[in-house]
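Bench log. Compound arrived from synthesis this morning; before running ITC I wanted a structural hypothesis for how protoporphyrin IX containing FE sits in the protein. Inputs:
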Amino acid sequence: MYRSSSDVMMQIILFSRSSISLSCVSYHRRYSNMMPKWTDLEFLIRSHLHVKVLKNKLAPELPRYLDLARKELDYGWALDVPQPEDWTEVDIQHITRMLIARMSAKVFLGFPTCRNKKWLKVSIDYSIDAFTTAFILRMFPTWSHFIVAQLLPSRYRMKQEVRTAMQVVGSLIEKREDNARRRNRGEMVEDDEDTLMHWMLDNGTEEEIKLQEMATRQCVLTLASIHTTATNTANVLFDLCAHPEWFPVLREEISKVNSAIGSLDEQPETGVRRWHSKLEKLDSFLMETLRFNPPIILGPQRLALQSLTLRDGTHIEAGTKISFANYHHMHDPEVVPDPNTFDPMRSYRKRQASPEEHHRHQAWLTDINENLSFGYGNQACPGRFFAVAEVKMVIARFLDNFEFKFPEGKSRPLMKFADENSFIDPSARLLMRKRKVE
Ligand code: HEM
């Protein structure tokens, strides 16, 4: 058992596979880790509009949103990705963050906000400041939070970022209201862009659509969607450089899929989903990268709302925070054979076994014994379908166009941890150059 910071009943119990099946008990996860009182995130406890929009709008219309994201990737590529002829050191984490931030902004807030430098900066910086604030507070006892919170520069930056978000979101709301007024007067006005935020405005309660809450929620969505996906994309590249024998294998797959159904750029509207689902080896590689580098090493996390006793006699008091030891579980030899070997074709081999198996073992599918990187159960990551496609779009383009390797004397950067969250050493770099195709 690992006792975390301050809060009275903050016990994190590390369950092993024998003691609990998360699907058979009812837990409700709270956002307590983010120190909501001091990060202005208390509204997340009463309202899940940010989850509803992903389940009810993004998921059913995924092909269309993926296509919009792909077009924004085209635009960002020319701005964010250097085109060196010779080996050049690059901050690959920064590049992937920019590309993913643009794609997220396009689907959540639309054009021209996805090109707004102020918004792109907020969408990257807010997560860092929110996590920094929460992690520092978690090191101090609850009684001192009032004082410590006043001393944290990251908390003041967060507040400034929310103010900027309010300007950006506020002007989008005003434009939408103005369009509605003009339509009522019988003027011809273009349809509003079908963004995820517009769905939230149409479907939120009075409280949920208030400017401050909507703007903060957009920041929360950047926190959930950008660093996770960008880190994972960078991790795939770091793992490829550590195991360069897989470069030709993945390139061959991409080239075969492109020859068979057209490259990413040639996909017809809504074709991205079909295209990326054909990249089965890349999907398998991504799963192995996530198994070694999950964004969170204790998850899923839930809070017991009432006391209960599990089948094996373990008693859980109401208020206990429960966490599954996902990293440990995914490296248990009884669950994953030879778990410490990086074997990127594990799930690919399983998919080839039979037509039934072919539909299973995919990166976006959560599975208690295979894939906990996106959480589990009805509170599993609602953005995972989008995330997996984003990673594959970016990686396929990188592999098609560039070669990568570690700088002289460097190797795969070790993951760093802040409590249960993991991230890549920010100073890690890669060398890249344009691919010379004979
Ligand atoms: C590779 C990228 C990503 C990874 C590894 C990841 C992982 C996770 C994990 C582990 C959880 C907690 C699930 C649980 O407790 O069972 C989660 C929650 C969440 N994720 Fe993701 N995620 C990624 C990308 C995204 C994207 C792109 C979006 C949005 C489009 C998103 C939106 C969310 C939201 C809103 C939640 C909170 C769900 C809730 O409170 O019920 N994530 N994610």
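What the model suggests: The domain at 7-17+27-428 is CATH 1.10.630.10 (Cytochrome p450). The chain is about 50% helix and 10% strand.
ITC booked for Thursday regardless.
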